[in-house]
Amino acid sequence: MADIESSLLEIIKENAVGLTGEPTRETAIADLGIDSFAVVEIIYEVEEKLSIEVPFNANENPLANMKTVGDLIDAVKEMSGQS
Fold first, then answer.
1. C-alpha dihedral over 7, 33, 36, 60, to 10 degrees?
2. Burial track 58-80 (b if 16+ CB lie within 10 A, e otherwise)
3. 0.85 exceeded by the pTM?
4. Do residues 2 and 8 lie in contact, with contact meaning Cβ atoms separated by under 8 Å?
5. Quick count: other Cβ atoms within 10 Å of Cβ 48?
């Protein structure tokens, strides 16, 4: 399996329209400029590229409780059993 952290950072970089530099664990989710369509794209890419099933409810924002990219990375690692 690919390194989750580096793969997720690359996925975020490809989908973050508000990001001016490289994403890091400390990058605030709010600074990514991710809309609901981008969230769906990120989830799809995580599932496809990392072979991780992401539970997703279209009526909820899966990033709502996450403040940083590090929070997102940790959540994906937990879903994969690599926490």
1. 90
2. eeeebbeebebbeebbbbbbebb
3. no
4. no
5. 10
Would you call 28 helix, strand, or coil by DSSP?
A: strand
Residues 42/62, Cβ–Cβ less than 8 Å? no
The class that CATH gives domain 4-80 is mainly alpha
SS3 content of the chain, % helix, strand, coil (to 5): 50, 0, 45
| Other CB atoms within 10 A of residue 19 CB | 16
The one-digit pLDDT tens for each residue of the chain (83 residues) are 458 899 999 999 998 888 888 999 999 988 898 887 888 888 889 889 888 887 766 666 565 678 899 998 898 888 888 76
The structure tokens listed for 19 are 């990001």
Tell me the domain boundaries of the chain. 4-80
